[in-house]
Amino acid sequence: MVKPALRRAWRDRQTVQFGITPAQAVVLSPVDPATGHFLELLDGTQGLPLLYERAHALDLSPGQVDELLARLTAAGLVDDPTAGGAAAEALRARTDALDRLRPDLASLSLLHPRPGEAARRLAARRAIRVQVRGAGRVGAAIAAVLSGSGVGRVDVLDAGVAQPGDVTPGGLPARAVGERRATAAGQLVRRSAPGAPPRRERDGEQPGLSLIVVAPREALDVHAPNAMDAEEWIRAGIPHLYAGVVETTGVVGPLVLPGGTGCAGCLALGRTERDPGWPRLLAQWRSGRQRTSVPACDLALATAVAGLAAAHALAFLDGDLPTSTGSRCEASLPGLDWRLAPVEPHRDCFCGAAGNTRGERASGAAGPHDTMAR
Description:
Helices cover 39% and strands 14% of the residues. The chain is α/β, with parallel strands linked by helices. The strands form 2 sheets. The protein has a 7-stranded mixed sheet. α5 packs across α6 and α7 runs parallel beside α8. The radius of gyration is 24 Å and the shape is elongated.
């Protein structure tokens, strides 16, 4: 089938465009009336034998059909609603869960052009375990989004008790006030999940951690992450992503790939080199004498940070490298202009990332890909 997430429109009588945005748009030309009618048949309800018969009625030969399908597939326009492997087939059998996840599946089909690849990646999320550290305005919302996006196991760690200020539209509900944050966040995760967890988890078998999302409620821990925690995760080889709000600035990143990208220790050492007074300031702030009773955390900013962090986490879990890999995405109120600040590996850091090369995400062209007009 032609990917249903791509809308079609005719530029003229012989040119059809699939997709709206420059990131996805593909132009097919020339298209005669018979081919135009045949494109309408590629809706996932008919296999090749029947399509050949329907094409014959339009005076299209099997060779012409094969050539058209090959070109559409090469352009990333074709999907296979039965492909993706055993895990994808198991997900399709869970119609309650799949109905919840169809918009996510449509999005993945645009990101991953090979037929069946979107279903395979979406199904793979069910075997993934993520830990979210922090269940405040940012952390609880991240946990809910990850669970709602099909991640099979989302654990939330937080030793505190939910306060009225923790309540958000996408996070902890009002009835959670007074409960342990971890308990309330666990209930939120279960309510957000599109279906029951995989059978092996219900039977007590736990998958290993694929990612830790660090979303501290303490603003200073957002601005200056704890390097001792990072050392433990790096030695265990666990990727981790930082996210949170400090004063009026939202932060997402860095996503740390142990031994490959700059970590919290690299961040601290780099700051000290640039500002010798930094350790003295940090010690005073950490002393506790200047802690505010109600830290600043704008709800809209926290929601934006949670959404961006969850999107970066899902991109990584699906096998890609988001821009927060080895960098911090930062935006401040009121302008909210997101900017990228690299976290360079430091030669003196325990993580050993100095000298390694971070993987780069390939960038696409700015306009429609006119791959079909040749």
